[in-house]
Amino acid sequence: MAKLPGKTAYSGVRRPMTRESGFSSHPDSTGGEWKEERSKSLSLKTGESLEIVFTIPAQIKDTWIAFGGWYCADKGLAINIDSPYPKHTLSEPASPNWSKFGSMWQGNGSAVTVKVTMNAIKDTNISLWNLACGQVEQPGCHTAGKFEVCTAPGYLTNLHLLSPEAHFWTATGETEVALLGSAVSLNLDDAGAYIRLKTCNRCARFLPINIDDERVQLSFSNHCVARRPCVHTGFGKLRNADTQEILQLEYGYQLECRFCKKYCVNAAHNKNRTGAQMKEDGARRRHFELLVTELYQMSRQMAFKHKTGVELSDYVWKKFGCKCFNCKIELPTVKSMALDHTRPLALLWPLDETATALCGSCNSSKSDRFPSDFYTEVQLIELSGLTGIAVNELANPTPNLEVISELIGRLDWLFGTFLMKSEMIRVRDGKVTGELVVKALQKAFDAAPGGSTVNLIEEYESRRQAKV
Question: Which of 164, 168, 183, 365 has the CB geometry, 3.0–4.6 Å to 102, for a possible disulfide?
Fold first, then answer.
């Protein structure tokens, strides 16, 4: 049988469909339209500071409230958010790409003031788009005129990660922009940078995307990452809603915005997922840990304890001051900390003394991203000092070349011993665990400088055919 792409490479067919979201796409949007709008702008001289003050009026207790917006500026800008709610989204300046900031939480009934300060490290221009604050709807699914409040467990936490695209305003507050120390609001120039917007096929809103570097994601997640360029109409090929001009993207974007993906698709789908489906990703991570452990015949965590007499988690927790490195929230106990690999396990980096202390939400947000894809340049310098990993290594997404070299030299062991273990030949929902591990390993090998010198998938297939 000829090999098929992606997840069907070995099993030949995808799993049978187990669920439907119950929502169709919006009748007024395919998700494949785009347009651009002009933003407002201003210039700051070195040492000047812009202050954006969001005032959210008093509300009924537990009403959802929010603030946020999008901005475009170069790296000569330092930003601080002063908010009574400690968790927020703030992506670093990345001109000509757009960045965003904001948060969303349930208020205690009192009026709220949030201040966002932008300090000019050098002369810089700032473009601003859609700054707003106020009361927002409780998260749910907006599709084709229907709305369903989400009550699924866990889906009302970490909503700051989806701000500001999660904001469906029901009552707006006041937003003022002024130079710090001045009581006079600024008159912003209407000739700011253009911002590109794409429709969501569920809520039909036009929301920001980046086209200079599509990996700097805003309101939509990428569609084709491993198999780019994305040639799928609506994903990688967008049609201008006004001029009909076609915009060809490299990675493309999902049809649903990140908010609707979570509340219109995943919330409905996940409750019907099989146990094997829920465990699949976690199992692959555990098997990578097992692979590295067996390759070196030791666990880095256990080796650390044997060497120092201290649990690795205790060591990292104290080294990071019992706080989340990213958002600085207090981690009162070791158990409240998520021990992050710093450099991702997906690229074969083991969990050792270079780990990072994160809270659960920041760890979830970072996921398998490399440090340079998640932290600011200032944070990378600080992280280097804490972990002992050189800044240039944190800034360059590379796999663990030592492990890759060792595996290339021990292919017979990899295919003849490790992938023959009982847990590797187990079949779940038509998927053989070992085959999925090989596919994930190939991605790590391909990420090496110059690409992979070995095609693990072909090697696996040829060895399997030889046994038939």
Answer: 164
